[in-house]
Amino acid sequence: MGLAGCSSTPATGSSSAQLTAKSAAPGSLHCAKPPAHPSTAQQEKLPDKSIAAGKTFQATISTTCGPITVQLDGTKAPQAVASFLQLAKGYWDNSPCHRLTTAGIYVLQCGDPTGTGSGTPGYGFGIENAPADNAYPAGTLAMARTQSATGNGGQFFFVYRDSTISPDQYGGYTIFGQVTTGLNVLKDLADEGTSTKTGDGPPKQPISILKITVIQKKA
């Protein structure tokens, strides 16, 4: 999955990892050893966007470095949120976040169970709610995609610092949610840098999604 004109990137059981992972306080990061991740990405069918249209959801993303809570906007990005709801039911369990950028744009990219950056759920969909000014504020949750108008799939990225991300020939990137708690986890992870010692690569401190739980918020 490409992002912002950049090329694609790059055992402990989940239950014990959940017990040892702690919510990081500002300036400190406490991470458990990531579990073994799947070797292949489960194939799914694209869900109907009506599942999420006009609704708001709260998702708690349990990671090896602590929980990250996000609010999902099914009004502005119904297809992306419907996809997230479906894939949250196990597709991302024990999946690593495979790409961190610390120069130019400031994001952590996740959502490929294989950790290679090329895994997909077997479907694609179009761009929704891309910002006209190319601004992605800190806390933004957006879809990563291939260089295609229908290149959204299972990969997404967290923005941990205000970023301007230039669109490619097909447009920008779908914003479908906002981090409500846990932004400090992302910032502290970014402070550790990348394993490649460049501004774009796997995070030096590995982080994996253990599981995701979602509830619908009342109107």
TrEMBL record:
Keywords: Isomerase. This is Peptidylprolyl isomerase. Residues 1-46 are annotated as: Disordered. It comes from Leekyejoonella antrihumi. InterPro entries: Cyclophilin-like_dom_sf (IPR029000), Cyclophilin-type_PPIase_dom (IPR002130), Cyclophilin_A-like (IPR044666). Residues 66-214 form the PPIase cyclophilin-type domain. Transmembrane segments: none annotated. GO terms for molecular function: peptidyl-prolyl cis-trans isomerase activity. Gene3D superfamilies: Cyclophilin-like (2.40.100.10). PANTHER family: PEPTIDYL-PROLYL CIS-TRANS ISOMERASE B-RELATED, PEPTIDYL-PROLYL CIS-TRANS ISOMERASE-RELATED. PPIases accelerate the folding of proteins. It catalyzes the cis-trans isomerization of proline imidic peptide bonds in oligopeptides. The keyword tRNA processing does not apply. Residues 1-21 have a biased composition (Polar residues).
